[in-house]
Amino acid sequence: MSLVANLTELLTPAIKTLGFVLEEIKVTPVGKRRIIAVIVDQEDKNPNLDQVTVVSREVSNILDNYSQLGDQPFTLEVTTPGVDRPLVLPRHWQKNLGRLVKVVKIDGQTVSGRISSVSDVSAAIEVAGKSVEVLFGDVKRAQIEIEFNRKVTN
Question: CB 3.0-4.6 Å disulfide test: which of 23, 69, 77, 124 passes with 39?
Answer without folding.
Answer: 23
